[in-house]
Amino acid sequence: MMNAPKMTDERLMQVLLAPVVSEKSTMVADKSSQVVFKVVGDATKQEVKAAVTLLFKVDVETVQVANVKGKQKRFGRSMGRRKNWKKAYVCLKSGQEIDFASSAQ
Predict the structure, then answer these.
(1) Whole-structure pTM over 0.85, yes or no?
(2) Is 71:82 a contact under the CB 8 Å cutoff?
(3) pLDDT of the chain, 105 residues: tens digit per residue
(4) Could you point out which of 9, 12, 33, 68 has its C-alpha 20 to 30 Å from the C-alpha of 42?
C-alpha cells in the first residue's frame, strides 16, 4: 500500500479542488442528493469525506471515487494528452444540502 499523506486540517483544505458542474453531475445531484467534486490525485475516500465535513459542515454518508482519463487532443501538428484527474461523488445524508452560493462568500 502507498504511503498516504497524514490527515491534517491543512491537508484537508487542499483535497477538494472544485465542484464539477456538468449535465451529469446536476442530474446526480437532483436524483440522489450527491455532489461531485474534482479532487487531488492522491486523495482517499476518508480524506474527501473529512474535507467535505470540515469545509461545508454537512454529514456525509458515502464517497465514491473515479479516476478520469485525460482525452487525447491535437495541439497544432502534434498529438497531445490532457492530464488525468480524479473526481469524487459525495452522497449526503438525507436533509443535508451544500449551498455553493453562500459558502463562497
Answers:
(1) no
(2) yes
(3) 456 667 788 889 999 999 999 999 999 988 988 999 999 999 999 999 999 999 999 999 999 999 999 999 998 999 999 999 999 999 999 888 887 766 555
(4) 33
